[in-house]
Design brief:
Length: 263
């Protein structure tokens, strides 16, 4: 992999402008940087590009809203309705309030996945640090929403299971299950996008003209699919956190038919 690593021009430029000031700021916080001239990683620059693009794009897009929407407004409204539909299907009618966070994470991952198709840039989701950050954001968010919806003690009671006698067994299982979720989310996204980028780089090194095009088309499909999977699993986790636990009362015994009762 060392032969495939290369410095991106925009990353080199950002480090020339901001590398040493950033290193000095980190030094004030007690963090020593080995190479002050290159202290800003490539994925941080890519995340910044995606963030600025999303802020500018959706700020400008939200300024003009017509009663009779045009094609561009229809596309934006369709994106919002997609997230609303996913949350309504998994969480229920109250899922609409989670659209801002789930939609932001989903669109950030989608834009990050597709950024690597632009020459001179890379997908920040090809770095585990970025995907783990997204996964931990969802992890913290759905636990927070579960506590808000049910209260701390009732939410923690979910970890004990429906039978109190089995709580010593269920609590470790539930804790491991929940902590495995950000690991699964981050590794799945990272491995797919990283493999795509490596494959395209290898193919482009063999024939840079036409041969990479089918693989780039495939990477578009995979990038969209991976962002959809991330959003879907996030909705499922939120649904499980905010759903009120039903009482697990034993069912009432059915009344036996009397001998004279009609069948």
């Amino acid at each position: 992999m060392e032969g495939l690593e290369h410095s991106l021009g925009i990353v080199v430029l950002i480090n020339r402008l901001l590398g040493r000031p950033a290193a000095a700021l980190l030094a004030l916080l007690g963090i020593r940087v080995q190479d002050p001239a290159n202290c800003i990683p490539d994925y941080v620059v890519m995340v910044f590009i995606v963030t600025v693009f999303m802020i500018v794009f959706f700020t400008l897009a939200g300024r003009k809203r017509d009663l009779i929407p045009g094609k561009f407004q229809i596309v934006l409204e369709s994106i919002i309705r997609f997230f609303e539909g996913q949350l309504a299907d998994t969480v229920g009618p109250g899922g609409r309030k989670y659209v801002p966070v789930v939609g932001t994470v989903g669109l950030f991952i989608l834009c990050s996945n597709l950024l690597g198709l632009i020459p001179g840039l890379m997908s920040p989701t090809a770095k585990l640090n970025v995907t783990l950050g997204c996964a931990l954001s969802v992890f913290v968010y759905y636990h927070w929403q579960g506590i808000k919806a049910q209260g701390l003690f009732k939410y923690l009671r979910h970890f004990m299971g429906p039978i109190p006698a089995l709580a010593p067994l269920m609590v470790p299982i539930e804790v491991i299950s929940h902590f495995s979720r950000p690991v699964s989310l981050s590794l799945r996204l990272f491995s797919n996008i990283f493999a795509e980028e490596v494959l395209i780089v290898v193919i482009a090194s063999i024939s840079p003209i036409l041969l990479p095009l089918p693989f780039m088309a495939l990477s578009i499909f995979t990038g969209v699919l991976q962002s959809f999977v991330f959003v879907l699993l996030s909705c499922i986790y939120i649904s499980g956190a905010v759903a009120h636990e039903e009482e697990h009362a034993p069912p009432a015994p059915a009344k036996a038919l009397s001998a004279g009762a009609p069948a």
